[in-house]
Amino acid sequence: MGKTYNKDETKKKLISAVGEILLEDGFSELGINSIAKKAGVNKVLIYRYFDGLEGLYQKFAESIDPFNKISSELENIIKKNKPAFPEMAMFAFSSIMAVVDNNEILAEVMRWEISSTNSIIRIFEEKREESGMNIMRMIVSHYELPPSMDLAAIASLFTAGLIYLSIRSNRIDMYNGIPIREDEGKERLLSVIKKSIEGMMIASE
Amino acid sequence: MGKTYNKDETKKKLISAVGEILLEDGFSELGINSIAKKAGVNKVLIYRYFDGLEGLYQKFAESIDPFNKISSELENIIKKNKPAFPEMAMFAFSSIMAVVDNNEILAEVMRWEISSTNSIIRIFEEKREESGMNIMRMIVSHYELPPSMDLAAIASLFTAGLIYLSIRSNRIDMYNGIPIREDEGKERLLSVIKKSIEGMMIASE
DNA sequence: CATAATTGTCACCTTGCAGTTACATTAAGC
DNA sequence: GCTTAATGTAACTGCAAGGTGACAATTATG
């Protein structure tokens, strides 16, 4: 029994227990008791170290922020070899799709967002809103787009669609005849985005 | 006190209490006690008449089905004056948007769907999946579209986006800089859809 | 109007959760 | 070893939920 006292380590265990429960059982199973149990730690510590659930969620929220990376990655791509706008947009949308698809914890948090008025959940929303705006601004600054192209609306609609389908894919596998869990389905969705953007570019010439 | 014993009436009261709570407080507040209270009736009746919550939800689910109307409405439009495909698609997408936007109970049910594994909720999903397929098939049967147009993917992506933004608009008012609760925001989204479809038509000629 | 079937009410039980307190144990570091 | 910080235990309150069984009220029907 290599038992050891380490406050920071214990805090980390609690924070990651939140993620584990989200991953394994979903946000509806989150609670003082389940988290303490999962962390293998006494529930009083949540009050002592985080001042309760809210505080713990707060720290958890700060511990994951997968969208801010995308912005810098995309900026690197532009700086190396500036691709045409439709290609660039595709990089952005497939990055977003990949992030949500490959991060089940994030997906669960996004499901949580939808049903919760929880103040901690606001942190995510704000962060993601900010990251989304950053990505968009960054792209706009590097390309000259026809004024008829409402990039904000395009980004909103497409990312919303991708996110929705991604967070639904844990429960349903077909949406309107598209196998949203399969690679085939995802390709088809991305392909629509590509053609849309190309089409809008052509149409606005 | 014109008290009267009326089983059917009481059942109706219980069923519509579900909708009222969804509307006023959200699905998280649904429960035996809250429903009985809202209906002004004793909770035992839920067990006697519906065999518990599941049975009541079942009946509630059957009582609302707003998407199947759209299909026939759209078919009427086609039969009267067959508009060009992009216009027609716009009718479809704005109908879908309007249905979710103007039916707060439906919107709440959709939020519920996302977070619940509740078997009753599946009823909605299946109904909507079916309605969506119907709409698509109907449109396809009236128009000749370029084979490169993946209508199923287009419909999935755009409706998913519209639905997601609509069900988020109760908590957030800006998404990627778009005021999703305002008419302005909605117009911009629909406008993107329109231009996308037009662009894809042109590009595939 | 008496009786039985229908419909409704009430009190109660159990469970699980959040949150708190007082106290006990264990390890770390000087 | 002694002190202090870190962790654990247990017991308790309070609450809201799901669920049930005994009983009361009402109506219909003979």
Shape of chain A: elongated
- By DSSP (H or I, 4+ residues per run), the number of helices of chain A equals 10
Instruction: Give the terminus-to-terminus CA distance of chain A.
Output: 72 Å
Mean pLDDT of chain A: 93
| H and E string of chain A | HHHHHHHHHEEH
Which range does the strand content of chain A fall in? under 5%
**Which sequence of strands runs across the widest sheet of chain A?**
1-2
Determine the oligomeric state from the structure: homodimer
Radius of gyration of chain A: 20 Å
What structural category arises from helix and sheet content of chain A?
A: mainly alpha
User: Any low-confidence stretches of chain A, pLDDT <50, length ≥5?
Assistant: none
Index terms:
homodimer; 205 residues; mainly alpha; Arc Repressor Mutant, subunit A; 2 domains; two-stranded antiparallel ribbon; 10 helices; 2 strands; elongated; DNA-binding
Helix and strand arrangement:
The structure is a homodimer of 205-residue chains.
Chain A: H1 7-24, H2 32-39, H3 44-50, H4 53-63, H5 67-80, H6 85-101, H7 104-115, H8 119-142, H9 151-168, E1 174-175, E2 178-179, H10 183-203
Antiparallel strand pairs in A: 1-2
Helix pairs in contact in A: 1-2, 1-4, 1-7, 3-4, 4-8, 5-6, 5-8, 6-9, 6-10
Chain A binds a DNA duplex (30 and 30 nucleotides) through residues 3-7, 10, 31-33, 41-45, 47-48, 52-53.
Could you explain the architecture of this structure?
- The structure is a homodimer of 205-residue chains.
- Chain A is an all-alpha fold.
- In chain A, 73% of the residues lie in helices and 2% in strands.
- Chain A is built from 10 helices and 2 strands; from the N terminus they run αααααααααββα.
- In chain A, helix 3 (44-50) crosses helix 4 and helix 6 (85-101) packs antiparallel against helix 10 (183-203).
- The first copy, chain A, is elongated.
- The model of chain A has no long low-confidence stretch (mean pLDDT 93).
- Chains A and B meet through helix 7, helix 8, helix 9, strand 1 and helix 10 of A and helix 7, helix 8, helix 9, strand 1 and helix 10 of B.
- Chain A binds a DNA duplex (30 and 30 nucleotides) through helix 3.
